[in-house]
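U., I forgot to send this yesterday:
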Amino acid sequence: MKIFFFSLFILLCAYSNAQVSFTAGDLKCSINNQGFVTALINTKTDSNYLYKDTIAPMVTVVSEGKHIYPIAMAYSVRLKKITLKYNLGLTIAISIQSKSSHLVFTIIKAEPAAAIEAVIWGPLPTTIHKTVGEVIGVVRDNDIALGIQVLNIKTLGGDFPNSEGSTWERGLAATKKNWGSCLQAYAINRNRQRFVDAWGGQFKNMPVAPIKDETVVGSSIALFSCPENVTLDELEKIEIAEKLPHPTFNNVWFKKSPLFGRSYMIASFAENEADEMINYAKRAGMISLYHEGPFENWGHFVLNPEQFPNGRAGLKTIADKAHKAGLLFGLHMLSNFINTNDAYVTPVPDSRLSQTGHSYLIKNINEQQNEIEVASPEYFNEIKNNNLHTVKIGTELIRYQSVTETKPYLLLNCQRGSFGTKAAIHYTGDMAAKLFDHSYNVFFPDIDMQKETASNFAQLLNETGVDHFDFDGFEGGLASGQGDYGVELFAKDVYEKTNHPLLIGTSISKTFFWHLCSYYNWGEPWYGGFTESMQQYRIDNQGLFERNFMPHMLGWYLLAENTSMEDMEWMLAKSAGYNAGFAMVASPKAIQKNVQSPALLDAIREWEAARVQHAFNKDQQEQLKDTRNVFHLEKISEGQWNLFQYSLSPMFTKEKNQKQPGEPTYSTWNFNQQWDAQSLSFKIHIKGKKGYVKNLKIQLDNNTDIKIPVELSNGEYLVADGSKQIIIFDEKGKQKATYSLPTELPNSSLGKHTIIFDATFSDDDPPVIEMQLKGFINKQLVFAKK
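Result:
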């Protein structure tokens, strides 16, 4: 009898319908008998961080387009699993593992599979809102961190934002709320025919073929909590324990490596210019030399023969030289974009090129016919996102101009045998597939072919030793119709198939990709000078980087033929202030033609050395960020520098104005000087399309006249540094001439001043004059901290 009751006791304990709790590391997670999370407790603070004024399902199921919450939970002690029951007869079984630092939840059964479109882990609402890491899924306050981690490629950060499973947001694994934050992840049942609005909704109703056995089963997350100041350590533990990508350099995790957030040089150059560019990159203290555009095509990644006459052997020689010089060597590519001259397109197009959709031929067509009748205009009548207007029928690519709006639906003005394919006879019922394209005039692979293109790129890396690149055009993975899964899968395939450590950048951020990505470097240099090109955008990115344990980066800047030391040190000061790396774009020609290049490269090296060795304290960094301040750094000895700080007045401008004969033409400017008494220092810049100015006249405080009898054309400028000498520069920043004033420039004191300014303008196309004053603030000794 005792044995009977003992067995009954064991049986009753084996399955529990009461609330259950699981503990790992500093986290205690409780789930009630309905399948809702009731507590996310940090055991060190003994505080429950679950926000309780909303629901917290352990798993939400998406079925028939609706979000369905659990109605019951049973727990098996022996199997260490919970089983969640839902309406519509849906069941989700989840295994639970308690690791030393985190809890692991993995879906082991999801039935009936055909009825489940997707599952969402959570969303789990928390009361934490100070720091919300949207990419990595970690939220932090002053004391603790609480996070969700996706543990495989099929599990995406977010809350199933759309049927495609994609987002243009930087990240959705954690989202900020008025009352705190939410943690969430999801997985899609891809083992079913789907129709999605692809590329973030731009390509409507795209058919997506099933991926065999790729269901929600196997989707897995980790939940953890820890002290806030060891969050990165905890993430590393999870990464190693769960066999996530864990890139290292010299056996050090990259996110703790000295290479973290370092700057690099980008250039377009030929094989015979490689030694020169390696020397420039080395002189500038860069971590890597990165080729801006080495490919003739993407897809098979054939090198441009004009730049690389020796092909991949030549590329390998350059990479070897860079490595010998202590540099990484990189190249630019556009992920899975496929050029129209690639072997995947011509002369025989691959059957795996991605399609936005298809129809069928209504009539036979011969090789010359330029009007083709199809059963439906859908997919062909897309105007906004139709760049190449290309249809694939058999092994022929056909470009068309438009499609009629009413029956018969005709593809009009067809160009037969496009992109080097062969025109052929086609028959009634043959498929006419609209190819997925892009404004860069490229096509894309489907999900199977994408794996092959990833292998092609990894093979190039393995053959040449190239160890640095960006997944630029990363969004190309969306062209498979598989959303962010396609994006992340491409990166994972390249990473796993490469046989050496990689420095990897990206154009967009994704949650799983965070583990293998080295940096995120957004901000382009093509829209203005150093101070103008997307500068606020670059600064705004720094908060995202800080929230997500990403290296601070300021984007790309352009070292041109006319780049000045003033502009360069303006940017370098911001880099130091935000402790942010950057990419310096510099062609061999631009470096050769800029007379200041040696000094510019040396300045980059010294500022970068001071930054990465933590020479600037917190107060100095705040000053360096301030756009009203200007700085100059001079090396004293190894690891020691003098930091000179200056302040700028507002920018004053003068245009030619029409006056009555005899009426004064001067302008009056008032400014409040923020620096102590010192000799007047200023810069005058001439801006316009043509024209010139001459006979510059400056009067300070109605009693001191300064006459500068020089002529300046568009783009030229002069600098007065407080002495008698005026230095004149041409439009490319090259010193053109000097002029010596008859007397020293006057002193100006702290406080309010008035400047009267006049000049003679050319009659035709007169330019605009810009003048700005500059004052010395102080000099500080800074030195390397490590």
